[in-house]
Every structure is written in structure tokens, then in C-alpha cells.
Amino acid sequence: MRSKEFQEKYINTNHPYPPLLNPRTARYSKIPALLAWELNLPLPSGYGFIFLAIHGCGAGAMQVFLEECNIATNSRFDSDRDIYFTHFKNLVFRRDKYIAIWARAYNFESSKLYYLLDSNVPAICVVRDPISLIKPLINHLGNKGFDRIPVINLGDNYEDVILPAEYYYASKNDIYTPSLDRLPDVLSSMKNSQHTLRIRIELLSKNLTNIHYIPFEDIGTSKAFDTLYALSKKYGFDSPKRREVFETKINGSNRSPLFPFTLVCDKNSNIELIVLRVCDNKILDSVYVDMTSILYDGFNPYGIRIIAKKDVYDALQFKLDLLKDISKYIDGYIQALIRIDEIEMKKQFNEEDIIEYLKSNINLAREFKIAFDLEYADVKSRRADIVEKWAYYQEFEKIC
């Protein structure tokens, strides 16, 4: 701490979290993660990039995509300290894995984590037309939006296992309907907890070698596989292999929280199936047999798969009537979801609805404009070509 290097790197720069041990000589493998955090030790080098997540920009899908490429990362819901703990262990004990830091999209805690990320690495960030970004926020389901029923019995009424959707930004008199009158609350949430891209870039600016911005449409079902393949070649991680994962809508569907669930088909014989989505890696587990083609061959907009343990699979080969009942029930479940989706979509707002509302509430529109200008300054500076393609945002700017 008395060295010239420490003085120049930490004291002279007013570094708010100077390490209390010399990172160059500290034996990380002998230090518990909690103690390292409290000693302000920067994470060891070895992570390939930092992913700057933005809420509403395909964060859930990107987490699945990175995992499909065998990248070790943290949960997108982790606290800053848990992010540090996860990668401290990854970087010290799992050096055989490609590691990426997932910088959380919302609920910014403090600058500490970012000061402890001092390796010179690139960042990757998916960006979206800001007006289109408002759409999933104003239509966002609340905490009880679609509660998952973890165990369903064959024959259960669909209305008992697919619960009504509550909206986070619901109208005052109806929790099951979103309201554009809640846009001021969306703006407040953006400014207070979700608009953190600018802050994170500023905190990491000394160490970021580049920010690789990806247009939101490039992680859609028709382009995601190719996008991740190109990223893998550029940044040196494993290329994607299961194209079907990238061609399935992952987090944009409100059905995501419903899966996985266990379908109890015969309690007496312990015959149970697991209904999950193709992006769930359990489908690759050798303990399970994929029975999707046997039990369901209809329209599959949710990308579901049906798997069973080997003994259950074997037992069902001799229970043809039960197989028919299961197939019929699953088909009915999917049809019920589709019907509910159609009802919910009629309640929800699109970009045109949002722009028309802001035209009638010009002061609110100007507040959004100020927030967008601050948040997306770096995107505009580095990738004006992306911003120029934001059609709804260009229309929005005309009314401000």
C-alpha cells in the first residue's frame, strides 16, 4: 500500500475501492471469495468479455444462448456480490471454461463490482429501438403474472393450471389489464433502476477495449444462431450447435414461466413426464428420453419438449391407451395456451399505441427524450447506423 504503483493507481486517482492486499502477489486460491470481496481484490484476469444487459432487450434469450455456447456466466438475477463470488470461483478454479461477466440490467447497487473488473476486455450489448423497448415494459406481467404450477395431474382442468395474468403496470381498477396511464411509472423505473447502461459504461470505460453493439433483431429467431456463431469466431468461445434452441422464442413469450412442469400420468405406476422448453438443457441429460415426437406433433409455438426417464418410457410402450390420453391432454394444454395468448395480445399495447399516447402527453414525451438521450449517448456515438434504423424512435423524436 506504500508502493509507488499503489499510490499512482489508486490514491492519485481517488479509487473508491483500493485493494487491501497487492493483487499481483495475493494467492487467490487461498483466499475465500467473501474475504476477497471485503478486501476489494479485483477479479483475476481470464474472463473473455462483459455482457452489458438491458432489460427488455432479449436478456433472457441471450443468457440461454451464451450457455448453449458453453460459456460460464452468472445468473442475470444475481446481486453484485453474488456475481463477484460466482466469477471469483470460476476464474480461480474453473480456468478450463470460457468465462463472461453478466452485468445485470436493473437494480443498480453501487460502483464496487465495476471497479473490481479491471481486466482489459470487450463488452457486448444488445440494443433496441427505445420505443419498442417500452412495449415489453408496459405489457410486463407482475410477480403473479403466470405462476408456474410445478406438478400437474393428467386430467386437471386447464383453467386450474394456467392462472390468470396480472400486469405489473395494470390499470387502477383492473389488475388483469395493462394501462398506458402507467407510462410515468415506467419512466420512473427506467430512470431509477433500469437505465444503467450509461453508468456501467462510464465505470468500465478505462478497461473496455471495445463495445460490440448488436441490433435487437439480430437475436431474433431467424438470425440468432448466425449471430452467436459470428460472435464465437470473433471472441473465441464454442460455436453454437443446437439450431432449434436459437429458433425458439425464449423470453418474449409470457409462457416462459409456466415451464418446466411435471405431468403425473399414473400415480399408481409412478409414470411421470417432464414438459419443458427446448432451451432447457435437461433435455440433453442421458437419463431422459425425448418423447415429443410420440406424444405431440401439432403446432408448437412455445418450443415444448416432453421427456421421460428410461423406465417410464419403457413402461409406456405397453400402455397405448394411456399414451393416447397423454397426447390428447398435451394437445389441449397447448390449445388452451394459444387461446389465452390471443386474449392477452388484444389487451397489450404496441409501438403505435405508445407514440399516440405520448403525442397527447407531450411533457411526458420530453421526459422520455431526456432519459433516452442520456442512456443511449454511447450507442449514438459508436453506431449511428443502428440508431438510424430505429423507425419508432425517429418518429418519436419528431414529436419532441
From TrEMBL:
<dbReference type="Pfam" id="PF11186">
    <property type="entry name" value="DUF2972"/>
</dbReference>
<protein>
    <submittedName>
        <fullName>Protein of uncharacterized function (DUF2972)</fullName>
    </submittedName>
</protein>
<dbReference type="InterPro" id="IPR021353">
    <property type="entry name" value="DUF2972"/>
</dbReference>
